[in-house]
Amino acid sequence: MDLEKIKAANKKAVKAMMEAEPVLVGVKPASEVIPGMTKKTILHAAPPIDWKRMCRPMKGAVAGALMLEGLAKNETEAFELAASGEITFDACHNHSSVGPMAGVISSSMPVFVIKNTKHNNMGYCCMNEGRGKVLRYGGLGKEVLDRLKWINEVLGPALDKGIREAGSINVKTILSEALHMGDDLHNRYKAASALFVSRFIPHLFSAVEDKKIAKEVSIFIASNDYTFLNIAMPAMKTMADAGSNVDYSTVVTAMARNGTDFGIQVSGLPGQWFTAPAPEVKALYFPGYGLEDANPDMGDSSITETVGFGGFATAASPVVVQFVGGTPEEEAEQNRLMYEIVVEENPAFTIPVFNFRGIPTGIDILKVVETNICPFGHTGVAHKIEGIGQIGAGKWTAPIELFKKAVIAFSEKYMI
Amino acid sequence: MILKNQNSVINIGVSLFAEEMFNQGLKVVHVNWKPPAEGDSKVADILKRLAYGTKGGKQ
Amino acid sequence: MVLVTEIKKNLYKDSIQLMRISQSIKSLGGVVEAAVIMATETNISYLLDLGLYDENKIQADNNDIIIAVKAENRDIAEEALRHAEDELLGRVKAFDSGKKLTGGYPEVNTFQEALRIAPEADLVFISVPGKHAALVTKRALEAGRNVMLFSDNVPLEDEVELKREAQKRGLLVMGPDCGTAIIDGKGYGFANKVRKGTIGIAGASGTGIQELSVLIDRFGGGISHALGTGSRDLRREVGGISMLRCVDLLEKDDSTEVIIVISKPPDPIVEDLIIQRINRCQKPVVINILGGDILKLQKNCRNTAATLEEAAYLAIKLSGIKTAGEEEGKNEKIKNLLADLKLQLSLLGPEQKYLRGLFTGGTLAYEAQLILKNGTEDSLFSNIPLPGIKPVKDLRRSEGHTILDLGDDLLTQGRPHPIIDPEIRHRFIRKESGDPSVAVIMLDLILGYGSNKTAVDDLSRLIKSLKGEKRKSPVFLVHVCGTERDAQNLSASEKLLVDAGAVVCESNALMAMLALKIINWIG
Predict the structure, then answer these.
(1) Which 9-48 residues of chain B touch chain A by CB within 8 A?
(2) Where do the domains of chain A lie, and which CATH numbers do they carry?
(3) What is the pLDDT along chain B (59 residues), one digit of tens a residue?
(4) Model-level pTM?
(5) In a domain, B1, yes or no
């Protein structure tokens, strides 16, 4: 019977997700490791989208990347080149990669290399630039480009040395500990980043001979709370990918927003993106900003909710309400709702305030449509004009349209 | 006895009945039900077919 | 005067919630008329009637909600619109908290959550739209719970599947279209507060169960449990699955000593099954098939009754209770009522000769037809016609003698049942009262749980005003289906109606018999 096949397939898919063992093994230029990467390829946050429809922050990020690659001398040239058809655009997700906010990855950028040692699949993500005017918010200008160059030339290679000195860095243990320290592992990464940095720095100093560089690099990563975000995201990508491609499975293996559209992928429907217009974020704005300034939701970072973190573990991170609004009780109730739409609870990651219940893992599109409970999470809000940066933070909810489309496609493929 | 427990009921749908049952001293939990996929009948049919193991075939 | 209309797409609200929102905006200052409704065919004609239909704006389909407001000026109308929107969307917050406690009981978003809060619950009461009932009921059965399925418009195939599943699991499905149940003294759906006692009821008709229970209470008896089977249970396809289970349960139940089985005529094969089961029963069973072959039943069963009233009397006798007002008193009662009516009847004009029955209880409308058949065949119409009775051609224009079930599926699409919202009946009463050929208007007034709290006052007021108008007003016969224990209180209700000029009858059967006598006397 179909239902039994689906249940068995979902169990299999989520088991693989939970058994994945993502490990940080190095940092390498994208061109060296990301499948399908070329000098003229620009990857961005999913789902796939034409240049014409890209939001301004993403266009800004694309322009910055083209200048970084030396393919354009200035913004005007960059925009022309981007529109010319010569550049290959694709979603990071389609290349075993992920990127936060605009998520732009170009060929020379160093990327964290994650290996899932259990199933041997890989995951990649660019470095996190920190706060202020940054590429991932569409930031352009000398400051942004200079920092990107420094990342290419100094940060990347130094981190790579340090990681190889350590052998490898186990990502799961840091995630597990950070979850017990108040991180939600989407918007709050203070603990995870601190844990990573404190354990990594000795290896960094050991491996990098130039102590000035070691100091520069350690100050950079230590002063950025989101350092670990860009390591956790590809790790979670490998977990999700481990559960993909299972016949008859209705489990979601990717959720992403590109500032224009929201998209999901489903294990039993490999290669397909189901999309809908990205909804507005229910946000708290920084002084002087409001809804009219906001860009629609953006980023591959919802890969965290896809494997049970972020909004799905928000009860473990009460402090997040100071940025997104609401109360810890409301967050806990929202977290509880997520248990209604998943297949399993992951015993490796637990939420203390729920009596150490495992995080809800494996979103089932059938449960979403039956209950009308849609996955949710938190996010920063970008200004809709490129380069201005973050103007607030709040909650997103995946539009039910996505799951409707997926269920109908599933019924057609499997003749239900 | 007709039911294993005659003091507790779950109400799905119209809240008026939940109120009436509650006012008689019954333990009531009310489910704020909404149609699957916010009323999409194609999706509702798929869910129903899956639940009952009936075949729909290609549409 | 300004009319504004707005359509809300992809929004689900049940018809009672919508009714409450309508009422709340209608009460705003400067609002003349307003409606917040689902865009079903029935409701569109309702909008037309109220003068709220704007054909330029109405491009809605069944799943959409229409807000229509007529007000003294545009500002007021738009304010009312916004108010309605707020109320509609206020309950659809993006982040509904898990456990609200507004009514005093927990409200959750999913059945699974409800099970966690009430794992001991053995009954799930379901009143979702008919096409969704199957899935919701399946989940309840999968969780091992019994179901009372209030929903109507449930496809027959779904009913068969559900009952087979319930049977496999040893569970009971009461319904679909099961409006009434009483279990251990608690009323579920539309039900009256009745004395607890030793008589159990298994019924395929909701208002039939209500009428039986109130008559038993009136005649000095009491109810152990009253279980509904849904109106189609005794069709061939369903095979009486729920009826048989109800009889089993009542037979096993310690507090039940006598069982009443009521239904309309079943499929012959199913009827035989039921009769066999009844005859094997350890306890005495009264069988009341309304409109059935009474002679055949009398031959095959020990205790039969032709009307609800007879069934009540018989069950009480079998349970050993002495009661005043035996059946023999019936003719006496009718004679007395007729005598009271002499004056009113003499005031009727020669053109006034027809009867209009406006019922909110389907079984009561049915029983009325049965009684009126003999003597009015050729000129009797109904929207739920018995075999041999003519179907109503146009609901908006009655002809001859007409019996209407205003709770019929077709009339309640997207609207609350008239027991909950009697407005539709008031409109019919005004219309029929204004028809110069009408001599008698016959009404059932159902009290108890689920019924409209101001129904008695509203109806009394309406009858009083109609009788007060200069034209020759028809005679109003009312049967109040209620008890002294019901919140609206039977005797207080009857008094209000008598004071308003209506003639009150203690049972539906009596009311129909009186109506027949009146028609014959006039004719």
Answers:
(1) 34, 36-38, 40, 42-43, 46-47
(2) 243-413 (3.90.1700.10)
(3) 999 999 999 999 999 999 999 999 999 999 999 999 988 999 999 999 999 987 654 43
(4) 0.89
(5) no
